[in-house]
Design goal:
Elements: H1 7-24, E1 26-28, H2 29-36, H3 40-52, E2 56-59, E3 62-65, H4 67-70, H5 82-93, E4 101-104, H6 108-111, E5 123-126, E6 141-144, E7 148-150, E8 155-157, H7 159-166, E9 170-175, E10 179-181, E11 185-188, H8 191-202, E12 204-210, E13 222-225, E14 230-236, H9 241-250, E15 255-258
Parallel strand pairs: 4-5, 4-9, 5-6, 9-12, 12-14, 14-15
Antiparallel strand pairs: 1-3, 2-3, 7-8, 10-11, 11-13
Helix pairs in contact: 1-3, 2-3, 7-8
Length: about 260
């Protein structure tokens, strides 16, 4: 049976479609099929699955993010990669030291680090408009960059956000991504978010990349960091030994694989 028909591949593909819709708000069936290297019929089946779960809504020739997802409401059941993301976020939180100053981008995996921080006096700087929903780290604080709000994910970007990021020198930058490519490096699906991510990386001593195994080998369009800038990649056990070796040879300094939560 080909890889396209295996259940893990199908789950990863649907997760990628959901994340594209959360990034852009809408996407054509043709563009999704070309992006994923599958037929339009396969994409339509995936969209049927996502529509049933309140993530996407079908339109003629395209899909849009469902209204409940635009409002930030959770789907009726967890996405197929949620256990991986939860494990990655918890592993990242254990790396945080007392009184650290951190950058976090708008990645759902990066933001999921915050509730698990137990270090004291940590300051988190993020360009996510959804940061108000996060718990404050013990004796710490969360600072929001401000800037132009880009729905549906509440990404803050533009010169206002960039100017505030420039005023910060962080010890660690925890970022998620839309894809990790051997040629393009760490990528995002939007230019505006990639610009902010790139500056966060530049203004940090260490880059810790949080990416589930579905992101490996995916180029999302806009590069914001070369692989040799990644001090540590935390991913899940879906990444094979071959994946790890290739990424280490491409320049990533260290890779840790964590078991998805039950």
């Amino acid at each position: 049976m080909g890889a396209e028909k295996t259940r893990p591949f199908v789950q990863q593909r649907r997760q990628i479609i959901a994340e594209i819709l959360r990034e852009k708000g809408r996407a054509s069936v043709t563009a999704l099929a070309e992006r994923l290297g599958v037929s339009q019929l396969t994409v339509r089946r995936d969209l049927d699955y996502l529509e049933e779960r309140g993530i996407a809504s079908r339109r003629y020739g395209e899909a849009v993010l469902a209204e409940r997802s635009q409002r930030g409401e959770e789907p009726t059941e967890a996405g197929p990669l949620e256990p991986q993301k939860a494990a990655i976020a918890k592993a990242a939180a254990k790396l945080v030291l007392d009184h650290e100053l951190l950058f976090l981008n708008t990645s759902s995996t990066a933001l999921a680090v915050v509730p698990h921080i137990i270090a004291e006096g940590v300051t988190v700087v993020t360009n996510s408009a959804r940061a108000q929903r996060l718990p404050i780290p013990p004796s710490g604080m969360i600072l929001v960059t401000g800037g132009e709000v880009r729905p549906p994910r509440g990404v803050l970007s533009g010169e206002f956000a960039l100017n505030n990021v420039r005023s910060v020198a962080a010890s660690t930058c925890f970022v998620g991504c839309a894809g990790i490519s051997l040629t393009a490096g760490v990528t995002s699906t939007t230019q505006q978010e990639a610009t902010v991510n790139s500056l966060m990386v530049e203004r940090s001593d260490r880059l810790v990349l949080l990416a589930d195994s579905s992101k490996l080998g995916i180029g999302a369009g806009f590069s914001y960091a070369p692989l040799n800038r990644v001090a540590l990649l935390i991913t899940d056990t879906g990444a094979t030994d071959e994946d790890v070796q290739v990424l280490l040879e491409a320049g990533i300094h260290e890779i840790r694989r964590v078991e998805p939560e039950a």
